[in-house]
Write a structure and sequence with these properties.
- The chain is mainly alpha-helical and about 90 residues long.
- It contains four helices and no strands.
- It has helices at about 5-15, 20-25, 30-35, 70-75.
- About 45% of the residues lie in helices and about 0% in strands.
Length: about 90
């Protein structure tokens, strides 16, 4: 199974080389990635694609963490110690 980073790199490389794929990715990001990578995103999952230009740069912010430590433990499968060490 490929990691999220490997899948992202694959999609970005293809979008750089294939104008038709790039247009499809912009028009229907979720459907295009599902088809290209053989994935099925869950209902309610959103995937957005933004094209950078010479005058526009996009900055991606990680989700803000408003979870309690118990919630973080549940999400991390018990592998979170509260100090940023993921075991």
């Amino acid at each position: 199974m490929k990691t999220e980073g490997e899948l992202r790199d694959r999609v970005l490389a293809k979008a750089t080389e294939d104008d038709a794929f790039r247009a499809a990715l912009v028009a229907d990001p979720k459907g295009t990635v599902e088809q290209e990578c053989g994935l099925q995103f869950p209902d309610g999952y959103h995937l957005e694609v933004h094209e950078e230009t010479a005058t526009t740069t996009h900055m991606i912010l990680p989700p803000s963490s408003k979870l309690e430590q118990a919630d973080l433990l549940a999400v991390a499968g018990g592998m979170f110690d509260g100090w940023g060490n993921d075991w």
